[in-house]
## 1
Amino acid sequence: MSDSEFKDMQIGQIVADDFRTSKVFTDAGIDFCCGGKQSIGEACKDLKLDVSEFEKTINEIKSQSINQSLNFKEWELPFLIDYIVNTHHKYVVKTLPELKFYTQKIASVHGDNHSELIDIAAKIDSVAKELDQHLKNEEEVLFPTIKNYLQSPNSDDAKTIISEITRMFGEHDFAGGTLDEINRITEGYRTPEDACNTYEVAFKLLKQFEDDIHVHVHLENNILFPKALKLSAN
């Protein structure tokens, strides 16, 4: 592959082809889920990073034998859907109440000295409300419709798949963008010198939640949704 061809590759596609490369982008602070349609050349230019180093690292990763059990791109859609629900949806449902509690707690205790915590608590509350309805729509409407279409293709299900996915791309952008903003506000979840144990726990949980959302949204935006849209277009 030429240098120009590599620069033009979409980040989401690189990760979809080999999920092991996701760590490279995470470590560099490059969004591979909601920002997955950005080319690697554009991302590196924005962050003043060396594209050739990325290409070298990614090629080294790809040269190693892959664990096929994590080759999400090759999974059948029903299996991928069940994995997303049982792994990522359940994590969101379990974690968001804790995240709301801890961010509201530190905002009430430390908000006078760290006003950004009040904003963070409000942002997490907004994300929680958005994701609560989003997950229900996926589990009760989109995912069953995809499975039904696979069994019996029909125009009504195809229209539902297209309309639901179109809306969900936007909802992903909101949730992912909000978490990216929290990351920026906290300078990568760095706690101040006067941080208590609850403060430390809250920021650790925020980091873990953002990491999971990145994988969650990547699996949908860059693998599940494109496959479902291609399917419903036939």
Note: DSSP finds nine helices and no strands in the chain.
## 2
Amino acid sequence: MLLERIKERAKQFGLSLSDVAEKTGISPNTVYSWRVKTPRSDKLKQVAELLHTTTDYLNGLTDDPSLPTDDLFSLDDDKPVMYHGYTVPDKYLDMIRGLMDADIKEGKADKHE
């Protein structure tokens, strides 16, 4: 399951398992060995970071690949947004929403960044 999840997630970023190995500095043989072996936690963490997910997702402990959103906020909410101590005016938020809507419609938006 682990290797399949890594493959699936890598594909979403246009990466192969060899690319994952190269970008993390882990040997391809090591990555492929995870089909039958348990990886070292530090190596798996490197892969999870590269693939913008959690080790829990890669290990099959959760089906949610999303990272915790402690530092993120949603522009879908009606909560005030602050920038350097100033409230961001609605007109600026509307411009950002418009830009994002256009990118989403054109397929340019990336949910994983």
Note: The helical segments are 2-12, 17-24, 28-33, 41-50, 55-58, 90-106.
